[in-house]
């Protein structure tokens, strides 16, 4: 029995300018490089932890739309 992995859509809402290097690297690790960029990521504890570290710069989107604004 195979289970499809749950996905979570994250959108970057804030700029990494003036933020600590660690937060910049976390955004890059999530695949977010510009404000408004969305990524669908596997819903794992490690991804949730990364989102929590930069929660002030990202938001979780309800819909599964990726790529557009």
Looking at this protein, list some descriptive labels:
69 residues, Ribosomal Protein L30, Chain: A, 22% strand, globular
What does this structure look like?
With 69 residues, the protein is α+β, with helices and mostly antiparallel strands. It has one domain: Ribosomal protein L30/L7 (Ribosomal Protein L30, Chain: A, 2-Layer Sandwich), CATH 3.30.1390. The protein is built from two helices and three strands, in the order βαβαβ. It has helices at 21-29, 45-53; strands at residues 7-12, 38-42, 58-61. The chain has a three-stranded antiparallel sheet, with no helix packed on it. The longest helix is centred in the middle third of the chain and has 9 residues, at 21-29. The radius of gyration is 12 Å and the shape is globular. The mean pLDDT is 89.
């Amino acid at each position: 029995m195979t289970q499809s992995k749950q996905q979570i859509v994250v959108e970057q809402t804030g700029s990494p300018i003036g933020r600590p290097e660690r937060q910049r690297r976390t955004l890059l690790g999530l695949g977010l490089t510009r404000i408004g960029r969305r990524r669908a990521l596997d819903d794992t504890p490690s991804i949730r932890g990364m989102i929590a570290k930069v929660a002030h710069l990202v938001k979780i989107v309800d819909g599964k739309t990726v790529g557009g604004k």
